[in-house]
Amino acid sequence: MITFPYVTDVVRIQLLSQLGLVFLMFFIGLSLRLRKLRQVGLGVMLATVITALGTLTLARCSALLLGFDETTALFLAAMLMGSSSAIVGKLIYDNQLMHRRAGQLALAMTLLEDIVAIVMLGYLGSYVAMEQASGNAGMGEIFGTVALLIAFVALIILPGIVVLPRWLNRFEKRGGIELETLIVAGLLFAMAWLALSAGYSIALGAFLCGVILAETKRVQAIERSFSGLKDIFVALFFTAIGMAIDVTRFPEALGIIALGVTLAFLVRPIAATLGFLSVCEDEEVAMKAAFCVTPIGEFSFVIAGLGVASGILDDTMQVAAVGISFVTSLLAPMTVKKSDT
Description:
Elements: H1 10-31, H2 34-40, H3 42-65, H4 70-79, H5 85-94, H6 101-134, H7 139-197, H8 202-214, H9 219-243, H10 250-278, H11 283-292, H12 299-310, H13 316-338
């Protein structure tokens, strides 16, 4: 009989996972320069919003109709809202879509879906707090949470973009790259702590720190300074996620995995196609781009982990997140090729 080793120091594994998450979100934020978002265009932004809302609504309603409770349905739908930018990029390259409209649309959408996932993480953090406090999150509380989230992001982003570049230039001239690196590291963890203290995920604070620093002239120097730490801690993040998975729970998670994969290949293409069609894209191009963004990304691990760590979801949801991401990434190349026929 084969037995699997079990993790005995769960707290330390979670700590490593959280450190990796901070650096992962920080570098995602660094890559999302506001100038790049302006180049994407308003049409793709609108299509991404329609896709996100459509996926959330259809997946959540489907899960509720199949008998899942409200919290599980919400988290499952949220897990399906973001695609894997790395897998999507590989799909587009392998299918020679880099210079075709469908490939460009898919790349732009997967970039914007990182922002969607971060916003959803912020909302889910508040949702978890409300559930733990009152056991019920009404519509008034939901709208209030969204308004507070928008206000929190604005209060961080606007002063940060105005003040931080000047401070960094001053520190770099006085103390060199070493002092600048220490200042940025302190700022990164301070913003992660600030987001956590405000009731949101540390991922939101780390992401906002990256977005602010992406608008400075020192962004390339910062990326070089932190590239080694990023490689180490992001690897630790995925390793910690794997170590937290109890493979003996996979049979229990098969139902959720099957539902998640089915929804990913039905709901996401439908929502994305409607999103692209709503901004006057060609039908064939819209469908091709929609199938390119079906692989579920690493944000699903973070979202599932948030629910499991807070105690409002069963451990099988973390197992399901890994299974859904793996299966959709495995099957996506076939669906993209089939969409040509």
